Amino acid sequence: MGDISLLMLGVIGISVLAVLIVVAIIVNQYKRCPSNRILVIYGKVGGGRSAKCIHGGGAFVIPVIQDYQFLSLQPMPIEINLTGALSKQNIRVNVPSTFTVAISTDPNVMVNAAERLLGLDERQIKEQAQDIILGQLRLVIATLTIEEINRDREVFLKYINTNVASELHKVGLQLINVNIKDITDASGYIEAIGKKSAAEAINKARVEVAEQERFGAVGEAKAVRERTVQVALETTETEKGQKEAERTVRIATAQLEAEAAISEAQTSRKKTIDIAAERAEAEVGLKRAEAQQRISIAELEAETAAKENNSRAAVIESNAMLSERQAAAQQRAEVAKANAEREILIAQRQRETALLEKEELVRQEIEKLKRQVDADAEAERIRRVAQGEADALLLKYKADADGMKQLLLAKAEGYHNIIRACGNDPDTAAKLILLEKLEAVVEKQVEAIANLKIDKITVWDGGGNGEGSSTSQFIRNFVSALPPLQEIARQAGIELPAYLGSLAESGTNGKTDKALPRSATPVAAKPTPAKEG
Which of 140, 183, 331, 392 makes the best surface tag, with the fewest CB within 10 Å? Predict the structure, then answer.
């Protein structure tokens, strides 16, 4: 009995020890996940999954067929010193920034992190994220102009979050924060934009000051004119002098206003042409950036397809080697079955070859589509450039027409002031204007003789006949062929003063001799010496 009792106690002790060992193993294999980590269980997890990710809580890890690791959720700051990135205007900019990323807790994204980042240290994870961020940041900058990047930072950050975050999700990372530092460019374009804005503000203020000063001067001139008119009405003795002064002031004011209108029209025309040119250049840059973007996307897709093809080829080759080893192991027992397996492998290889040929055709189609996109982009660029040139030419013609209109209006205002200065007598004003142009008419009359090219004149002088020599008669008849000054003025309806000469009637031969005034004496052309022989 004593031995049986001892044996029973031993069995019970062993059973209890075994139960305690099993409980200890179970407790040891139950893994709890901290809040700042992700528990990744890999191995045989079921459901066709490569790993099971748990954030918070815990799970039992089956020994032998399962294992586990933790992924840290600690944020990782990444310094991105992007230099020489091409903007939409083909200007290279430097965009230093700091991106803060961490492993995502989204159930779908956590699986990507377990598949691609498990076992990597923080430095390796940063290197992968840095490559992705640099590529997407260059792509975002290529779609924006310098003004959009520098002025509207919210839109810039929105584009960065949209493009960069979607790419980081593919490797299981989440974008937490983006800090863009000072943006610079090698050409000094951003600094020039600031100087331009400051200069525009200063010039605008100067123009407004000049406008106010002009308004004050015009108001003062109007007050002086009204005071002069009142004094002229009260003082009849100085009426003539006051009216002359008033006429001078109005003429000077009209001239100044005409000059100001011409300058304003020229400035407006230049501004319109510059704006049209900038818009045309911006459209060309936009189309060029869009074409470059499409080309880059096509190249990336082609490169991705090539890498996938290489991976598939490697998998196929590995499967073929495995099948060959299995066939060699079973060759001694089942020769016939090994031959059948060899035929199957040959058929599979032919199928994979056909698949690779199909993928090569797809790549060729992608190249064809890329060339077609390039041709369409070039045609669109040429059309945009032609449209910009046509718009600029149209704006130039419109500006010229506006300038001519302002000039004609200024002339009309000046003529109106001249008529009003002449007591609203149009005839007197017309005579005054014609008197101003009379000197030009006389110059044209003199040029009629002065511009004659006479190589040689031969005169046979037969002596005097009581009316002068033949030479003097020739010169007199030559000059009298032009209409005299008095005749020109009379045809224009102007009666010249007596001291400018008059038309005298000759009583000897019944013909009218026209006496030329001293102011209209023609200048004889200098004869050119005749060439002998």
Answer: 331
Residue whose structure tokens are 């040429």: 382
For residue 233, which amino acid is it? L
Whether 330 contacts 338, CB under 8 Å: yes
Residue 75: its pLDDT value, please?
Answer: 92
Strands 37-43 and 66-72: antiparallel
Best CA proximity match to 246, nearest among 58, 449, 74, 423: 423
Show the low-confidence residues of the chain (pLDDT under 50). Answer: 499, 505-533
Contacts for 310 with CB less than 8 Å, ≥ 6 apart: none
Question: 392, 277 in Cβ contact below 8 A?
Answer: yes
Q: Which two tokens stand for residue 446?
A: 């003199």
Rounded-to-integer distance, Cα 412 and Cα 406, Å: 10
Helix intervals (H) in 331-469:
335-421, 426-450
Contact indicator for 58, 108 with CB cutoff of 8 Å:
no
Angle CA 103–106–107, to nearest 5: 115
Contacts of 160 (CB under 8 A, 6+ apart): 136, 137, 140, 178
Contact 525, 454 (CB under 8 A): yes
The string of pLDDT tens digits covering residues 434-456 is: 777 767 777 776 666 666 666 66
DSSP letter assigned to residue 517: P
Tokens 């110059």 sit on residue: 443
